[in-house]
Each structure stands twice: as structure tokens, then as C-alpha cells.
Amino acid sequence: MVIEWDTMVSVGRVARAHGNRGRVVVNPDTDFAEERFCAGNVVYLRDGDRIDRLLIEDVRFHRHRPIVRFATVETMDAAEQLASAELRVPVDVLERLPDDTFYYHELIGCRVETIDGMVVGVVCGVEGAEGLHRLIVEDGQAEVQIPMVEAICRQIDAVMRLITIDPPEGLLDLNRPPRRSARTSRRA
Fold first, then answer.
1. What span, in angstroms and rounded, lies between the C-alpha atoms of 35 and 150?
2. Residue 19 forms part of a structural domain
3. In the prediction, which pLDDT does 98 show?
4. What is the pLDDT at residue 174?
5. Tell me, what's the pLDDT at 31?
6. Which residues span the domain enclosing 131?
7. Which stretch of DSSP H or E encloses residue 76?
8. Are residues 140 and 163 in the same domain?
9. Are 112 and 118 in contact (CB under 8 A)?
């Protein structure tokens, strides 16, 4: 089986080493941290051009963050080498979600338009947790944060890569740079 990094999905990032026996603290990038980070599961990390497979040998949680021991990481020095490493899994290991529920990777790259057809930009990220998510949308000049609530996100079509929104007045102007005046003065 050939593993391609760009086709995998991020599930977390190693924050730092924990203790002196090779454990690491992971900042999860998943709503399913307990299922994703459990003994016997596998995650992958990229080291240069190489993709390494890491078997989770043991895990416990502290403040909703997994403290993981990988089978091949046995020392504090080895764990410290993993700091900042992104952890990914193949898309085919993801569970099917209920209707009207999406994984972050399904939303990133979607075009965002208003119900009137005005293009807002492209989703470059999703932030938040526990039902308080927001889309981070870039239009080339600024980022706009759009709350993922039914009253605003009217339709999400992950297949067509389109999200239709009905933003309240002023939402799309929150992070926009000020317009430059037509008249400018210059110093000689």
C-alpha cells in the first residue's frame, strides 16, 4: 500500500515530549480524539521525503489532550525529535459522518458565496470545537470568519465544493482592510 501525505488528513500535532520514557503530548485536530488516539491505532508523520508509520502503544488523556506512547519511540530524546510534527491518517480510515456533518478537510477549499451569488472567498481553515465552529475564508485581501450556524451557513455542498451563506449585515466587512481614498497626497 502506497501512502501519500497529501491525500491524508491531519488528526493532530505533537506539542512536546512528556516525561523521560518517550511519551508525547498531542494537540488533537479532531473531534474524535478518544477514538483516533487509542492503543493499537496507527498515525503517520512525515520526516523529509519519508513517511513514518507510528503505532500507538499506550495513551492517556489530560485536559482533553492525548499523552501518547508510540511503539518505536522509547526515549525522551526521541520524543523531543517529534515536537511540532503533524500526525495524519489515510482518509479511508475515517468513519462516515451523519448527514449535514463534515470533516474539516471536506470544507477546506470550498468556494463561499452569499445567497445573492456574491463570491466571498475560499475556505482556508476551520476553527473551534464542540459545536462552536467557524469557517476561515480568504478572498486574497483579508480573512473573514463565518460562524457555522444554520442561520448563516444555508447550504454546504462538499461534492460541488460550494458553501452558500446568508450573512448578517456587517459580518463580511469585519476584517476587510479600509478602502483607499481616490485622492492621495505624496511627498516629494
1. 27
2. yes
3. 85
4. 77
5. 80
6. 104-173
7. helix 76-80
8. yes
9. no
- Residue 179 belongs to some domain of the structure: no
Q: Quick check: helix, strand or coil at residue 55?
A: strand
Longest dimension (CA), the chain: 70
Q: Return the beta strands (E) in the chain as ranges.
A: 8-18, 23-28, 42-47, 50-62, 65-70, 86-90, 111-114, 119-127, 134-138, 143-147, 153-157, 162-165
145: domain CATH number is 2.30.30.240
Distance CA 108, CA 125 (A): 6
- Of 62, 93, 124, the last residue of a domain is 93
Residue whose cell numbers read 523529509:
48
* Last residue of one domain, picked from the residues 60, 93, 126: 93
Tell me, what's the pLDDT at 183? 43
Query: What is the structure's pLDDT at 118?
Result: 94
Q: What is the mean pLDDT of each run of 10 residues along the chain (188 residues)?
A: 84 94 93 92 93 96 95 95 95 86 90 95 86 88 90 94 95 68 40
Computed from CA positions of residues 8, 12, 14, 18, in that sequence, does the dihedral angle turn out positive or negative?
negative
Which residues, other chains included, contact 170 with Cβ-Cβ below 8 Å and sequence gap of 6+? none
Quote the pLDDT of residue 6: 87
- 146 and 168 housed in the same domain: yes
What does the pLDDT read at residue 71?
96
What would the grid cell of residue 17 be?
515530549
- Asked, for residue 183, whether it belongs to a domain, the answer is no
